[in-house]
Amino acid sequence: MKICILSQSAALVSTRRLIEEAEARGHEVEVIDPLRCYMNISSRKPEVHYKGRILNEFDAVIPRIGASITFYGAAVLRQFEMGGTYVLNSSVALLKSRDKLKSLQHMSKYDIGMPVSCFAHSTQATEDLIDSVGGAPLIIKVLEGTQGKGVVLAESKKAAESVIDMLRGLDVHFLVQQYIAESKGADVRCFVIKDKVVATMKRQGVDGEFRSNLHCGGVAEKTKISPDERATAIKAAKVMGLKVAGVDLIRSNNGPLVLEVNSSPGLEGIEKTTGKNVAGLIIEHIEKEVELKKAAGEKK
User: Fold this and answer.
1) What is the pTM of this model?
2) Which helix (H) or strand (E) holds 53?
3) S-S: 247 plus which of 17, 80, 88, 233, CB 3.0-4.6 Å?
4) Contact at 8 Å (CB) between 243 and 195?
5) Distance between CA 220 and CA 73 in Å, rounded?
6) Using an 8 Å Cβ cutoff, are 188 and 223 in contact?
7) 28 Cβ contact partners less than 8 Å away, ≥ 6 residues apart
8) How do residues 71-112 score in pLDDT, each as one tens digit?
């Protein structure tokens, strides 16, 4: 197979691991920076151009699109889709998962457990917002934040009001979310590949830090998950339309609650913690999907 990885750098750990595993299985890989692509949009066959050539030779595209370039990266990915190339995660699923508000609304429709969350615009609703999620302490999340950035724990009602008023003054979109005290600053990352959880790790925030993200200093360890947690992770990925996803859960007194569904989950932490070749499993999945796609085309 000829595989395209949409990534801004081949040196990024997750991109490099995918290259290593694909090449080890005999595939040809090229890393393409989506920001250097441009698209020919016409009534003819859709084309993606890169450095003066048309990218029409790939059997599969793996999107490793950073959050800061989501809009343009999704447009490039969509162009590959329209040209008939197999893509690991679709542009629709990518955009849906990157929009924290839309993803929460979508998951709530399918009765997936989540912390109670509120979103509003009027400053007059501040007190009701706080009460709606059970009062302080509570979590405030900027919608555009990633890797734990833009997330604040407000330990008192007064602190929550101050943060909310500040964010509204900056005209920033944000969520107010229920704080699950019993999770004790820990969450579980479930790595899902097509209806199967292939690896799991528990991430624990350092003392005094409620965020468990490894980028924020959190530590990880292998963990076993319950059947309910497994089913929740698989359902969340499926509802978001993602074939490969990192589903972050917290353990509450009311069962597993989904915090986020990541469309470009990092490989370094999960592979080091679990010892599993997750990159290899992704390439194996792509091989099967491309073969199925080719078989379906031959039958036509």
Assistant:
1) 0.88
2) strand 53-54
3) 233
4) no
5) 30
6) yes
7) 1, 2, 3
8) 999 999 999 999 999 999 999 999 999 988 889 999 999 999
